[in-house]
Predict the 3D structure of the following.
Amino acid sequence: MHKRGHFNFGLTVPLGAWTLAAGYHTLNDKTKLDQNIKQFNLGARYSLSKRTTAYALYSAQKVDNGGKASMALFTSSNDRQNIFGVGIRHTF
């Protein structure tokens, strides 16, 4: 039996050379630990050419009741975590 409830919402909006994205995710931990998670994401991509894009992203996560925040490969030493990334992607 699962002891968690999930909710996930995402939105992507193309605006010319730009693509904006936002997302929200919650996990309702129904175990004795009650370590609920809330995460918010923002991102933007800009088309530099047909095969090259620049991007930036931001994610913030909060865990209730003593849980440790953990996104991607990173685990925080506390209940909150923020990640910011930028880069360029080229497809061959």
Observations:
- The mean pLDDT is 86.
- Residues 4-58+65-90 form one domain.
- The radius of gyration is 16 Å.
